């Protein structure tokens, strides 16, 4: 099964609902996501903080159709409670996934430049 990095159906639905506010929604997602990535990096050794950040990041990523990013955040959220794995490696995967999807969302945002 192919990994879905950006669900265009979700974005299409958001565009329809948000209309003129859609570009602002994308800007907010990109800005907030960057802040969450930085927070994850800083909380690398704090499982409880990682779980909180991952929970929030999972929600925003899922809402904006960043499917794989949301899945990785969910995994971090669960594993931070269980503390069974190297959470730093999972933070790295989330960081890498955001680096992959960020230009996709920036490109989507560029479609609405005036």
Give a brief outline of the structure.
By secondary structure, this protein is mainly α. It is built from 5 helices and no strands.
Features:
mainly alpha; Four Helix Bundle (Hemerythrin (Met), subunit A); elongated
What distance separates the N and C termini?
38 Å
- Structure class: mainly alpha
Helix content: over 70%
Q: How many helix segments?
A: 5
Number of domains: 1
CATH superfamily: HPT domain
Q: Say what the CATH topology is.
A: Four Helix Bundle (Hemerythrin (Met), subunit A)
Q: What is the CA-based Rg, rounded?
A: 14 Å
Provide the low-confidence segments as ranges.
none
Mean pLDDT: 93
For the sheet with most strands, the description reads: none
| CATH 2nd-level architecture | Up-down Bundle
Shape assignment:
elongated
One letter per element, helices H and strands E, the order comes to HHHHH
CATH class: Mainly Alpha
- Per DSSP E runs of 2 or more residues, the count of β-strands stands at 0
Strand share of the residues?
under 5%
Q: How would you describe this structure to a colleague?
A:
This protein is an all-alpha fold and 114 residues long. It has one domain: Four Helix Bundle (Hemerythrin (Met), subunit A) (Up-down Bundle), CATH 1.20.120. The chain has helices spanning 8-18, 22-42, 47-63, 67-82, 87-110. The model has no long low-confidence stretch (mean pLDDT 93).
